[in-house]
Amino acid sequence: MKINIQQKSLTGEIFRRSLFVFILADLTYRLGPLIDGIVTGNFLGVDAVAATSLISPLILILTLVGIIFAVGSQSVYTELLGQGKVDEANSVFTFSNVLAVIVSLLIMLSILIFSDSIVRILGGKPGTASANYAADYLCGYAPGLMFFSCAKVVQVLMNIDNDNSCIVYAIIAMTFVNIAGDFYVVLFTDMKMFGLALATSLSYVAYFGVLMLHFRREKRILHLNFKALNFLQTFLEIFTRGSMPAFSRLSKSIANIIINHAIIFYAGSKALAVFGVQKQIESLVGSLYLGTAEMILAMSNVYYGEEDKKSLDDLQITSMSTGIFLSAIVSVLLLVFSEFFAGLYLGRENLQILSMGAEAVRYMAFTLPFYVLIFGFLNYLQGVKRVFSANIFVFLIQVLVPLSTIYATLRFTSKGPWCATLYSSVILALMCLGYIVIQKVPVNFKKRLLLNSNFYTETAKELELVADSELEVMGMSRIAHLFCAENNLDKRSAFMLSLCIEEFGMNIIKHGFNDGKEHYIYLRILVKEDKIILRIRDDCVAFNPLEYYKMTSQNEDDPTKNIGIRMVVKMCLDIIYLGIFNTNNLVITISKEQSQTPATCKFVGNFSSSVL
């Protein structure tokens, strides 16, 4: 049941204002090696370029450490946060950082001890300049891996903790240190590849160091918590959820190696060069659809934990409309300037090759909106706990369909292999649609939400309301009272719900609606077998009403002062405040049975007491 006094969705606002940071954050996975590659090609010669190509698959694998622990911890953390389990969530955050440090140190020691042997395994011939360069680069890169991995674990959660600006500053610092360090190495030292890699490691230290400034904030969600956990179960949960994007990138790398061999065999080296340009363009614009997908994963985990179908529905609509709109703009730019982008990589001397490259860029332009849909669908599957299906789609997206379409294009048509990119994206989009169509769900569930059987049994009767004034808050209170009567809830529960809505709703308007901007209060009631859960969310300035209660309850001179909030806290079973995604969230649990035990108040989140 949904009654919106105002038709306004906060989910879309959260998504749009956070998307840029997620897209920017995705660039950090490739920024260091990308800058090193540009400097290498222009300053250190062919042997250094060969060394870069030699170690690039290993660099991809090394970054997977950060991806696994970052994405895995984010998935578990946000789900627990949606359930109001803040201490448990922070234990997962702490445990993930410890694991990242241990694994990174083991990898670093292995590289420093066995660098020459590793290069030989990668295909480098002992004693050659390219092999020596590769070993030097690995030795300079290894010390920064620990900082990079821990930084990724912190960074993916900082957006939830309302600190987008710190992420942007950290990425700027990382980029500046990397570029400055690279030019210092090639212009003023003789360290060559070791120096370039060391500059990248130092940039990761700068990245990590700036992110650590977040922990100077007095009020935040992220804390180190060494509360006892089932360590094996937590590790398996983190690894399982984080392995999907890691497996996705790794399988894509392996599939590209196979594709390269097929293109050389059927079409020759020129076709491979043009196909490589298309992949470069894909990497350039890939953060658009991958950043969108990461935002979908973070938000869907929270809303799934809250058992909030409406917000999941809004997330789907907003993410796809926003992502496809942005991708359409980029696609138009690629279409209009296709020859320019091809010329950046292929030069302009050979007009035939340039024409082929421009065609490849145009095919990439048409593919981009499909990628937004495909990768968004993939991460949404993981967010709503369809992990097995998500892993199947990883194999389809990264391996089976691209290999099949490339082979069919090369074997049975005269078109260039770059055409297969568009073919495979269309096939995959149809597969995503087909997966949705075949789902069997209860009549009151939308198929495209893809909610599994566990979600059906966990959800219960619910009511959603939106309001933007004191009058409408009073209206919400009355509607909630009628909702209780319609669902045979006792008078005590109805009274407590109405009291909570009025007290906290009026507090939000009093402290958050006085900045001259348009704001809304979003209310959701979920009735379960033994309890009632009331969630109140607003988009106002950060304000924790529980901190206000804490301050007033310490003043016993006037017991009648602020009596409303005192009554609410004493009568409820549990009250939690969360400041996430730049919103204020109160999760109030009311027992259906009479209880005199005061509420357990958890003072967490990011807020400022200056508004009191």
SSE order, one letter for each helix or strand: HHHHHHHHHHHHHHHEHHEEHHEEE
Q: Give me the secondary-structure category.
A: alpha+beta
Low-confidence stretches: 1-7, 603-612
Percent range of helical residues: over 70%
Counting H and I runs of at least 4 residues, what is the number of helices? 19
Strand order of the largest sheet: 1-2-3-5-4-6
What would your notes on this structure say?
The protein is α+β, with helices and mostly antiparallel strands and 612 residues long. The chain folds into three domains: 11-229, no CATH class; 250-459, no CATH class; 460-611, Heat Shock Protein 90. 70% of the residues lie in helices and 7% in strands. The chain is built from 19 helices and six strands. It has helices spanning 10-43, 46-82, 86-122, 129-141, 145-158, 164-188, 192-211, 231-266, 269-305, 309-336, 338-346, 351-383, 387-412, 419-437, 453-458, 470-486, 491-512, 545-553, 563-571, and strands at 461-467, 521-527, 531-538, 574-580, 583-591, 600-603. Strands 1-2-3-5-4-6 form a six-stranded mixed β-sheet, with helices on one face. A hairpin with a 3-residue loop joins strand 2 and strand 3. Helix 1 packs parallel to helix 6, helix 9 packs across helix 11 (338-346) and helix 9 (269-305) runs parallel beside helix 12. The longest helix has 37 residues, at 46-82. The protein is globular. Mean pLDDT is 80; it is low at 1-7 and 603-612.
